[in-house]
Amino acid sequence: MPCTKCEEGKYKWGKTGECEYDSKEACESANSKYSKTQPTPLGKKTYEEYEKELKEFNLSKVERVELQTIKDIKDFAGQAEFNARESIDLFNDAQKKASSNYKTGIKFAEKGLKMVETFKKAVKELGVDIPKEVNQLESSLKRSEKTLNDYWKNVWN
Question: What's the pTM?
């Protein structure tokens, strides 16, 4: 702590000392034991020891840590739960719709194939050639039936 000049021309040690010294040299001489060995607030180390430790401390190792509030964590947990429920509901809705479409598609394919079979039988009895279009429709119905069954077996079961 340095000696400071008071208003009346005398000197004091530090900010709280009394204005009792006639010169700066007298002030520093009287307080020389404090200038280099000033104790830390805890009184266990000298000022020099404390200053040396402070210089040796590597500030580059200091890392900033951000703590989350419980409210932030609750918000994220709530959003995660909401999205999980929503995803399950959407998946279940999609599965119900897909199941309904699968069953309807299979019914149409099976009924269409039965109609093709009946039509071909009637055409043969009449001795007429089967139109190409009927064979194309039969192929389309078989493809649809196979696609529906394969997809249902691989995805939904």
Answer: 0.47
